[in-house]
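[Automated response] Your request has been received and processed.

Submitted sequence:
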Amino acid sequence: MDLPASPFAPVRFVNFGCDHYKDEELVADEALNLVVLTSNTGSMCICYSKPVQADEDVTYTVAFVHRGYSKTFTVAMEGAPRPPRTDLLFISLDYYIAVCLPGCFLHLINSRQPDLACHSLFLSGEQTRLCCLCPSSSVLSLPEAVLLEVHSGNMFIVSIKNSSLLHFLFTSTEDGQRLAALHCALAYLTPESEVELQIIHWICDNVMSYDRFDQIQEFMLTSLYRRIWQQSVSLDKVLPYSSISHWEEEIPGVKITTELLSQPVFRGKTRHLKGYWEELQWNIETMKYFEAVPNLRYRTTFVSEEWNKLLAERGSEEKKPSNYLRNIQENTKKVLSTVDTWHLDKKLVPLFQEEDHQQRVLIGLMVDKLREHLNRHLHRLGKKRIDGLVVNYVAQLLELVRRILETLWVKFNLRSQLLCFKQQGSPAEWAVFHVMSRVLEAAKGLCLPLPPGKHPALPCL
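Generated structure:
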C-alpha cells in the first residue's frame, strides 16, 4: 500500500497535509510525533502533531485514510496551565481515538463517524488526568490501547471509566456535551445492561427534549446502531447512527479544518489479502461509491412517505394490491415471533397483546423499506443474510421500547396491569403517562414503529 514508509523526520508527509520542509528555519530537534492506528473493522487513522510549545496553541491532525479525508484540530491554550509534556498521546480505543495532553485536554474523536463534532467528546482541565500516571510521565502509546510508562516499565490498559462518563453526561449543561457523552456511552460502554439502565433512568428524569436534540430518539437510533453494525463491515455506512444529521455548533476553543486525501493505492496481488488488509481494501474501494450515491444512509423518511399513503388509502377505493399487504403482514409476523422468543416469561408491561393494526403495518413496512435499501447498496451480503439482518434490526427496536417501558414500570412501582382511572391519577401514574407520551412523540418524529399494544396502553393511563 502506498503510504509514507517511515514515521520519522525528515520524511515529507505532504499527502497527509503536513510538509516538514515548508519552513526554511527548522529547529534541529523538532521531530514529528506520528502514530498509525488501525482496527479490525478496516479503519486506518494516521495521527500526527508537532511538539507542544508553552503559551502556543496545540495543533494535531488525524487522517482518516479509510474515509478519504483528514481533520486538523487547533486547541486554544490561552489561560491553560503550562503543558506537562511536549508530545501528545494518541491512543486507539477502537470506536474512538483519544488525543490527550494530560492535565490540559482530552479529545475523544469518533473514528467511525467523524463527520460531526457533536459525536466526539472534548474535555479540559482536571477531567483529563490519566489515572495512575503523573502528567509529566514519559509514556509511549502501544497497540490495543496500552500505555507504557518508560521509567518504571509498567504497562497500563486504557479504557473509558463508566462512572466518570455517566457522571459527565448527567451533569453537563451544554447540549453539545450531552449529545457527545450520550453517543459515547451508548456506542462505546454498552452492551453493559447496567449502563443502559442508568441511561434510561436519566431519560425518565429528564424527559423533555433538549433544544438541539431529542434524547429518546438518540437513544433508539444509537443503541440500534451499536447492536447491528458489527454484523457486517459496511452496515455502519448505510444504517442511521444518530438522530442528528447536521450540527453547526463548534467545540468551544477548538478550530477544526477538513481536507480531502488522495485515495491510497494497493500494490501487488490485492485479491489475496486477508484479515485487516482485506477489510481496509474493501473500505477504500467502496469509498468512492458511497460518496457518489445520494441518500446512502437509511432515513426514516423512506418509510414515512409510504406510510402516509397507506393511511390515506384506508377506507378509500384505491388500495394497494393484496399481495403487497400480505407481504407486509408476513414481515410483521417474522419480527413479532423473534421478539416473543426473547421473552417467554410473564410480561411486566401489557404489550404485544393487542391487534393494533396501524403499528403492525408500520412494523412490516419498515422491514420492507430497510430490506430494499440494503439490497440496493449491500447486495453482496446476499438475500438470506439481509432478510435476517432487517428482521433483527426492527425486533431490536421493539425490544428497546419494551425495555424503556418496563424500566419505567419498575421505577414508579406500577402493577403489571393497566387500569382506567375514574379519578385523578397519582404522581407516579402522571409521570409514567408523561414519559410514554414522549416516547410516542419521539417515535412518531422518526416514523418508527412501537410494540403492538403501546397505543392502547397510553389512553388507558
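Summary generated for your ticket: The first strand starts at residue 33 and ends at 38. Confidence is low (pLDDT under 50) at residues 4-15, 23-29.
If you did not submit this request, please reply to this message.
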